[in-house]
Design brief:
Helices cover 31% and strands 26% of the residues. By secondary structure, the chain is an alpha+beta fold. The strands form three sheets. Strands 1, 2, 3, 4, 13, 14, 15 and 16 form an eight-stranded antiparallel β-sheet that branches. Helix 2 packs antiparallel against helix 3 and helix 2 runs antiparallel to helix 5.
Length: 326
Amino acid sequence: MSIMSTVTALILAGFAAYVGAWYLNIGGIEGNFALLLFLATAVTGAYWVAERLYFLPRRRQAAQAIEAAQQQRRDELTRMGIQQVDGDVEDAKGKLLMQPWWLDWTAGLFPVIAAVFVLRSFLFEPFKIPSGSMIPTLLVGDLILVNKFTYGIRLPVINKKITEGNAPQRGDVMVFRYPPKPSLDYIKRVVGVPGDEVAYLNKRLTINGQAVATSALPDFFDEDAVRYFKQFEEQLGAHPHRLLNDPDRPAFVPGVDNFPFKDQCQYSIEGVRCKVPAGHYFMMGDNRDNSLDSRYWGFVPDSNIVGKAFFVWMNFGNLKRIGSFN
């Protein structure tokens, strides 16, 4: 057992070192939570199986052996006329049956870790909104839930789709792996689906030559920027949503990356026009003049999709934020 204790301590130390290096950004380590959770599930699952098939039966056999020896001793003493027997066999049995610490921290945690793994990988995943690119729909600090099966179930870590699901629709708020750096998750709104011609010229959106309907709303006060922005309601897809425009920012798109299928886009002083290639999506933030989106780094391939965002489950600074959104 001392060998298993040492091995387990090394495994747990490895997990702790990885998490610590990730959190402290030591050596440029980029954490992969999906991979970490998968490995934790696999390791604790192996311990759980070993506990059920090997370690627990051995402890039970040892406890039964103690009980049998104690009963034999009682029988011998009874034959000798001695009725009072010293020793607490139940206490010894309890200590033998107790899981050692290295099983408590592995096999004992497996059911919880496995439940989290299944829930996060195939049903719902929580995210925290880190920036203001989706204001006013989503605010910095919103904790949201993402539906992982609407667009098809994908295998964790490798993100390979195993069921078709529904295709993303214009207007959906989608979480995806940032194409220039897939280790990062981004959240934007689906503006163009495969085959669409998307144009954002002079801060007006058109899809396939048709202007997307918008109507003016009262100005939005951004508490972080401490200023008002022009606010509009836009009908993109089945449900309307709000967006912001900054009249002081030019329509020109500066600092564009060299991305795949860039030849499908034409940039001008007025903005950008793109033809969305097959299997890709054109994404934009609702905070139109403060969003690093497809205008800058290109299209999102289907293989990068994580899921559909649909619910704010907590904002510790504003509980009124809890609820669904469009």
